[in-house]
Amino acid sequence: MGVGLAITGGVAYLIGRSQARLHALFEGNGRMVIIVALVVELLLVGSLVTLVRHMDLFETALIFVAYSALNGLTLSFIFAAFTTKSIFATLLVTAAMFGALALLGYTTNADLTSWGSFLFMALVGQVIGVFVNIFWLNDTLYWVTTATGVIIFSAYTAYDVQKLKRYEPPPGSGDAVVQKDAIVGALALYLDFVNLFLYLLRIFGRRK
Question: At what angle do helices 30-50 and 175-204 cross, to 10 degrees?
């Protein structure tokens, strides 16, 4: 997870700190690169989750690294929209929240398994709400989806950490299976962190 976040942050920073690179990506024909990158990201995540049993360890790690790099490219836009100071301040807030929620998920005696179905349904509703507001541009819906996004991915963080804590290898599996499952688990936590950061950035980010 840490490696993935470092790759994403590094790529986003290298692109985002250059106005020429940002214009090349988000203006004119460069937009097609972003669209292709987003489609490839979805394909990479889908293949990593569904086809991991048919990959070797190197392929699994490579897909995770490639996804992290592509995500850094698509997220570089935040440097065009928000001040660098507010981005790093929000990153610190996210890290603190994520750490506290991860500790909660790891130490709580409550069984969070029952959260899974509810969180998935909430996430589907969240995605629909965000998509609708791309066209509607309603301020109230914007802040509702911001608040619910923070809540959903906060809950997912605790849920995923407890799920990983209770992980047991499939019967008869070897070390490679465990290591590949660890990468899939890292992806889940990576997605929790990145989404939590993006929703918090809506709150704490200062626009240029």
Answer: 140
- With a CB cutoff of 8 Å and minimum separation 6, the contacts of 63 are 44, 47, 48, 55
Compute the radius of gyration of the chain from its Cα atoms. Answer: 18
Contact 86, 197 (CB under 8 A): no
Q: pLDDT tens for residues 150-184?
A: 999 999 999 999 999 999 998 888 899 999 999 99
Q: How far apart (Å, rounded) are the C-alpha atoms in residues 37 and 165?
A: 33
Query: Cα–Cα–Cα angle for 105, 114, 181, nearest 5°?
Result: 60
Do residues 144 and 151 touch, judged by C-beta distance below 8 A? no
Compute the average pLDDT of residues 97-106: 98
pTM: 0.95
Q: Measured over all CA atoms, what is the biggest interatomic distance in the chain, rounded to whole angstroms?
A: 55
- What is the mean predicted confidence (pLDDT) over 182-201? 98
Give the 3-state secondary structure of residue 46: helix
CA distances to 86, 154, 171, 206 from 23, rounded to whole Å, are: 21, 33, 52, 20
Q: How many CA atoms lie within 13 A of 147 on its CB side?
A: 5
Helix, strand, or coil here: 53?
Answer: helix
